[in-house]
Amino acid sequence: xxxxxxxxxxxxAPEEESQNWALRPRNLDEYVGQPELVERLLIAVxxxxxxxxxxxxxxxxxxxxxxxxxxxxxxxxxxxxxxxAELGTQVHTTSGPALARGTDLVAVLTRLQPGDVxxxxxxxxxxxxxxEFIYPAMEDFRIDVCLDTGMNARTVQINCAPFTLxxxxxxxxxxxxxxxxxxxITHHLRYYDEPELGRILSRSCSLLGVSDIERGALERxxxxxxxxxxxxxxxxxxxxxxADVRAGGRMSGAIVDDALHLEGVDALGLDNLxxxxxxxxxxxxxxxxxxxxAVAATMNEDAGTLEDVVEPYLLQIGxxxxxxxxxxxxxxxxxxxxxxLPG
Length: 343
Ligand SMILES: Nc1ncnc2c1ncn2[C@@H]1O[C@H](COP(=O)(O)OP(=O)(O)O)[C@@H](O)[C@H]1O
Ligand SMILES: [Mg+2]
Description:
Elements: H1 14-23, H2 35-54, E1 66-69, H3 76-87, E2 91-95, H4 102-109, E3 117-121, H5 128-140, E4 142-147, E5 154-159, E6 164-169, H6 177-180, E7 185-188, H7 194-208, H8 217-222, H9 229-246, H10 253-262, H11 272-285, H12 292-299, H13 303-316, E8 320-323, E9 326-329, H14 331-337
Parallel strand pairs: 1-6, 1-7, 2-3, 3-6
Antiparallel strand pairs: 4-5, 8-9
The protein binds adenosine-5'-diphosphate (ADP) and magnesium ion.
């Protein structure tokens, strides 16, 4: 099931989250890939710092609000912390579902210092009622709180420090357009290519103290990482364990192959869940088109998980087509699965 999935780009286990922290780049220099995003941020950060220096009162200027969207594991949380580090301000972290009521947001906003970063993960899950509080906060750094009801109702304004909201989402399409329009910088993170993943892996190797690596071994991990740094680091940890136990710590191409084969990861980086998704469409729906809900029900999986975690990469590598009538397998996918569809 998805919870034990090696390839899953989402993190569930707390120990993995702490291992991820250790491997996370700390500044824009260490951040691999996404060159357009890095350049936009370098310019924006430098402009903010120049404005801060020009101020007479010594207070910190703030960066424009930033919206990051893209599949899980591509470095959205990482970039939020990197921005905070570059600005020399604190990063306060919360998420859409954690802000259940307007008062939750008020509590968070009133803790901010000028120039601080407020990172809201899964911002597409922000309740509508809270969204309305966030508009004046983003625009004028004030919150309108309604006290009492009926005859005694009145609104009081609470000011908060000028801050930068960084929102992250896997589903930009679910964001309301008034919310989306309030971000000054919007960026879609793309999948990493193999050389970029190779650079991330070799940095991780030095942080993890892995040095006995044969040529080509990291490339083999990179090519099975589905363009996703989080998966690359996770596969690296699996391969390291395997190499430690089976090969005295020596990481060779053959060890990579054996370790990942054992984990059910194929040459393209697809795992059992991907294959089960593809073969469900092939076998139960004659290759589609079929609605996502139907596939999810047949597999006894959550439709949201399939949409966030399985489909983006299959679309990216041309295995899946999304049509108006639903999902359909492509000829390349059938070739990979070794199936021929009727008709
Ligand atoms: N650009 C990058 N350079 C190096 N490592 C990265 C990069 N992006 C992500 N990572 C690694 O991948 C892991 C997952 O990234 P994360 O920011 O949590 O992804 P997201 O928030 O988009 O799901 C991080 O812990 C980090 O180790
Ligand atoms: Mg994240």
